[in-house]
Amino acid sequence: SAVLAQIEAKSQLKDIVQYTKSLFGMSKEIATMNAEAFELQQKVALNSEIKAVLDSWVRYETSVRENEQKALASKVMGSVRSQLTSPKAQDEIIAQCLRDIQAIAKTA
To answer: Is the pTM of this model over 0.70?
Structure first.
């Protein structure tokens, strides 16, 4: 009876090599899939970092452009104001206004 139990135990172990090979194959496949998943996670993280840097550059360039536009507008307005304060420009403006009034008076 003990011999039969031993034979029975040994016969159950006859497929252990095939099971072990199958489990090892599955283990390799899982390791490969984990490596691929990790690589994809790294790519996603890298893409997110690149996007963040590019978005930062866009914000920076927009800020620089806005500042340049403000400076240009300020310069133009300052130039116009300085020209309007010159006596020559004021005389020209008054003369043009008088001509316009005379032209309107003639048509009325």
So the answer is: no
Residues 6+ apart with CB under 8 A from 89: 83
Which single residue is written with the structure tokens 């998943």? 37
Q: Do 90 and 84 meet the contact criterion of CB atoms below 8 Å apart?
A: yes
Task: List, for residues 53-78, the tens digit of each pLDDT value.
Answer: 999 999 999 999 999 999 999 999 99
Q: How far is residue 105's CA from residue 2's CA, in Å, rounded to a whole number?
A: 135
Coil, strand or helix at 86: coil
Helix 16-85 to helix 87-107 angle, to the nearest 10 degrees?
80
Q: Could you tell me where the beta strands, DSSP code E, fall in the chain?
A: none
